[in-house]
Amino acid sequence: MPDLSAFPITKRWPARHPELLQLYSLPTPNGVKVSIMLEEIGLPYEVHLVDFGKDDQKTPEFLSLNPNGKIPAILDPNGPGGRPLPLFESGAILQYLAEKTGKLLPEDAARRYQAIQWVHFQMGGIGPMFGQVGFFHKFAGKDFEDKRPLDRYVGESKRLLGVMETHLSGRQWFMDDDYTIADISMLGWVRNLIGFYGAGDLVEFSQFKSVGAWLERGLARPAVQRGLNIPKRP
Fold it and tell me: Sheet holding 73-76: strands in order across?
């Protein structure tokens, strides 16, 4: 039985099944990337809710695992060399899990890096820009009199959707017929943009037909549907 007692996070979130991968998360667009991935690859795991309403992400225990104070994070008792591996940053976790299991990344080296480049596209563009649209359209930023920040982020989000649209035209997934971590990285963000953020009309989402069809295909996957609600909110 793996001993995880050296990791302070297990003091606040005890592992009932320490032999399983431990997921610390919340069902946000970044959080669901890892829960969807785990559901898709069928790797057994134990989930722990990091409640932002209680500032769980700011506690010393959580910061010991992720000093950046963001979800998701994992603790894999069966990491490289058979040693426990703590890991944060959703893109890094997606790549780690794909390489650990040999799933959802192309075997061909060139195509492998092409899939990873789209994950970085999401991390550096889609996530930050869509998140800013959410802030300035739905949350506290909506009350700002100066609408230039909102206009900037809406414009950049439309540009990014255009990049996605051009690439997805005639393709089922970002890597043609291969569903990969590239798709998983973006599904929750596009869903949030037009759903929870209510910004579909703002970014003129209806004009991005290929993106809309891709999103519909992705959300129809049973593993995606399960992963979108893990962990359950209180």
Answer: 45-49, 21-25, 73-76, 85-88
For the segment 50-89, what is each residue's pLDDT rounded down to a tens digit? 999 999 999 999 999 999 999 999 999 999 999 999 999 9
Tell me whether strands 85-88 and 73-76 are parallel, antiparallel or unpaired: antiparallel
Closest CA to 198 of 125, 134, 150, 141: 134
Closest by Cα among 75, 63, 102 to 17: 75
Asked if 85 and 97 touch (Cβ cutoff 8 Å), the reply is no
DSSP secondary structure string, 127-162?
HHHHHHHHHHHTSGGGG-S--HHHHHHHHHHHHHHH
Which residues are within 8 A (CB) of 55 and not within 5 positions of it... i.e. 6 or more apart?
none
Q: What is the mean pLDDT of residues 90-101?
A: 98
